[in-house]
Amino acid sequence: ILLNGWLTYEYIVDWGDYDAELWPFLWITTLLTLIEAPFATCLVTLYLGHWMFVGRPRKIMLLEAFLETLPQMLFYQAFLRPFFILHVFMPEVILLERTRIRPRDGRVSTFKRNRMLHWNELGNLFGLRVICYSFGAGLIGCWLVIAFYAAPFVIGSYFPPEQWLPWLYAFLLWLMAGLFAVYRFLCYLNVRIRHEGWELDLVMKAE
User: What phi, psi does 128 have (nearest 5°)?
Assistant: First the structure.
C-alpha cells in the first residue's frame, strides 16, 4: 500500500482539486495491485499449501520455500504471465508443486504440469474469474460509498474525503487480493480432487 501510494502520490495530491485525476489514480493503483499481488500473496499460498498437505508450517519453512521458488516466480511474472493470463493456477504449480521450467531429474516441467491442471478447465475458470472480479469490484464500490456517507458522522469534517479515500481504496484492493488468493487455492484443490481422484480423507479435509 505504501509503495503504491508513493508511486501515485501526484494523483493523490491533486485529487481534491482536479476531478480528472481520479480515474488515472484508480487505474494505476488497480494495475499496480494486479502486478504485485502474486508476490504479496505467495506466503498466503504457501501457508495454505503446507497446512493442507503437511501440517501447520513453521515460519522458517515458509521463508525457505518462498526463497526457493522466487526466481521462477519472478521469471513468470516478468515474461510469462501475459501468455498465461487464463492459467490461474500457475502460482500454485510453482509454489506448491515445486516444478521446474527445465527439470533435470525426469520430473514434469512447469509448463506440462500447468497444461495438465488446466485441461478442459479454461472456460470454467475464466467464468469464475469474471464473476470474482465483478463481485470484488462491486463489493469495493459498496464499501467506498458506505464509508463516504458514514465518514461525516464518524470523523466529522476534519478529514476531507480526498485525504483518506485513496488509502481506503488501496487497502480494500489488497484485502480483496488476499481473499482471492484463498479462493484460488480452494479452486486449485477442487480441480486436483476432480482430475486426480484424491483419497476421500483429503476430500473431507478440503471441505
Answer: -65, -40
Buried b (16+ CB within 10 A) or exposed e, 27-44: eebbebbeeebbeebbbb
Alpha-carbon distance 142 to 149, whole Å?
11
Distance CA 75, CA 102 (A): 13
Nearest partner of 69 among 49, 43, 48, 95, judged by Cα: 95
Task: Report the length, in residues, of the chain.
Answer: 207
Kindly report, residue by residue over 158-179, the tens digit of the pLDDT: 566 666 777 788 888 889 888 8
The residues of the chain scoring below 50 in pLDDT are 13, 15-16, 18-20, 200, 204
127 in helix, strand or coil?
helix
Cell numbers linked to 78: 516478468
Q: Report which residue type is found at 72.
A: Q
Rounded Cα distance, 102 and 100, in Å: 5
Instruction: With 0.90 as the threshold, say if the pTM is over it.
Output: no
Provide φ and ψ at 109, rounded to 5°.
-75, 165
| 15 burial level (CB within 10 Å; 0-12, 13-18, 19+) | buried
- 170-179 as b/e: b if 16+ CB within 10 A: bebbbebbee
C-alpha cell at 104: 533435470
Residue 98 backbone dihedrals phi, psi, to 5 degrees: 55, 40
